[in-house]
Amino acid sequence: MRRRLATVIGLVLFAALPAGAAETLRVTVDKAHLMHLDTDAGTIMVADPTIADVVLESPRLVFIVGRAPGETNLYILDVNGAEIVHTDLLVVPNVDREVTLDRNTVEATFSCAPRCARIATPGAAQEAEEASTADESAEAGG
Residue 92 to residues 33, 77, 98, 105, 137: CA-CA distances in angstroms? Predict the structure, then answer.
């Protein structure tokens, strides 16, 4: 009876966990994560390639590179179409060595290891151009 009760409790606790909770892979922007597969990969698909890129080095060796902060998912299938990997993929900024400054509408990010140097961030050039255009328009009286 105790064994059956423990099994039922275990199943209830497992069912209460959010789907995919243990399946999230976390990668840092501009860093790579190495994944060794037990089976040869046939198909690899990232839902949003602007967030992460995948490089198949060999049929069983995969590099996942963080491109921009965000969340997507990754599927790796074998040559017969059977699922080898299905995981949520979370790409996070490197906050350990980066500082972001906000000045009105312009945002600038600096990598500070060992000295701070400005780095390109997605959308930063467009934001700076829009802010410059708005300033020129205000000065012209428009």
Answer: 13, 25, 12, 23, 36
pLDDT at 117: 85
d(CA 65, CA 43): 17
| First-last CA distance in the chain | 81
- 107 - beta bridge partners? 102
User: Where along the chain do its domains lie?
Assistant: 20-92, 98-139
Please give the distance of CA 29 from its chain centroid, rounded to a whole number. Answer: 7
pTM over 0.70? The answer is no
Mean pLDDT of the chain: 77
Does 2.60.40.1080 match the CATH number of domain 20-92? yes
In this prediction, residue 128 carries a pLDDT of: 54
pLDDT at 9: 41
